[in-house]
Amino acid sequence: TGVPALDDVLSTFAEHAGILVAARCAGDRYIDDHHTAEDVAITVGQCLCDALGDKAGLTRMASADRERDGVEVRAVLDLSNRPNFHSDLAFDEEYLGGDAAADAGDGECGAVLSSEMLVHALESLTLETRATLHLE
Description:
The chain is globular, with a radius of gyration of 15 Å. The chain is built from 4 helices and 4 strands; from the N terminus they run ααβββααβ. A hairpin with a 2-residue loop joins strand 1 (about 60-70) and strand 2. The protein has one domain: Imidazole glycerol phosphate dehydratase, domain 1 (Ribosomal Protein S5, domain 2, 2-Layer Sandwich). Helix 2 (about 35-50) runs parallel beside helix 4 (about 115-130). It has about 140 residues and is an alpha+beta fold. It has helices at about 5-15, 35-50, 100-105, 115-130; strands at about 60-70, 70-80, 85, 130-135. The protein has a 4-stranded mixed β-sheet, covered by helices on one side. Its EC number is 4.2.1.19.
């Protein structure tokens, strides 16, 4: 995607979901990270929705707890066809990876992923998948 933190999120998601996700995009990263993160999440969500079909025979509800870099996250998922997203995630930095990540963007606004855009991207992914997701 051109946004390393977003690439990392997508890779981690794909690994734990047991799927292959490949995304290549070109957009207005010179402005900010919004459209890149949002459009990739929308597209991946639509692909998941199509791949899941009518969801017949699937385990509809599940939860998982994971730890990464000393941070624990719990996800509760319902493949309900009633899209809803709720996040209790608390971020103590404006950008994923902190100021070092922001500085590594070499002044290109959209080269880093803001914490706010991560939440928005997860919401877009969830709604387009037509699922319900709660993160804490």
